[in-house]
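User: Can you predict the 3D structure for this chain?
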Amino acid sequence: MSATLVKTPSTAPPAEPPPRIVPTRRAGQWTAAGVILVLLALALVSVVRNKAFQWDVVAEYFTSASVLRGLGLTLWLTALVMALGFALGTLLAVLRLSANPILRAVSWGYVWFFRSTPILVQLLFWFNIGVLYPQILGVNTVNLLGPVAVAVIGLTLHEAAYAAEVVRGGILSVDRGQIEAAESLGLGRWRRLTRIVLPQAMRAIVPPAGNMLIGTLKGTSIVSVIAVQDLLYSTQLIYHRTYEVIPLLLVATLWYVAVTSVLGIGQYYVERHYARGTAGAR
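Assistant: Here is the predicted structure, written as structure tokens:
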């Protein structure tokens, strides 16, 4: 005889569904957010409808030839100052990390002096260098430096002091084991710096360097005090003639906002490039 298997009903209770997670209601935060949005909307409407801003004048001069020439000079000055400033700043950072106490002291003294002195004072000193030193090594300095040359020199020396600290911080962020591994491979000091240290330090250098770039772009407006025809000075020349101060200042402001926005987008992608392989990469 063959045995017949009989299935008996399971007596185990049915599985209960997992508890549903209900997020905490934050009515106060949403109320505050709504109030802020309403206030921002009201402020925007007031700016757009306020006839004192003279938006028709803003549109007229926004792409005028003189304003675009000033914008071009501002961009050129920003790029040149950043390139020269970081070249000199990198050298100062290397000297600051040197084993030679004299080189370290010179680098520290440079950074201390130029970070302690207002940039406007530096520009005015360079602009009046002919009064302080009429001749240097037999060269007449009275008319040697024009306003643009003074702006380049003054801004570069100023930016180099900050760039030195940015680069030094980036170099110090590199793990010591990486440098020791490069030394064990027999790499020279220069190759260790350019092939091992700086590529890894860029992850820490890029964010503050991007902020410096944007700050330098806006900071170039200070050269208007020595009659360099940058973006701000170009708009000033126009409103000194037309007395339309507010709309011309808006023209300069909108151009600064547009350029800094583009630079901010570029900074984001550069940061993401150097953050590859790290937890913070997005």
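The chain has a mean pLDDT of 85. The chain has eleven helices and two strands.
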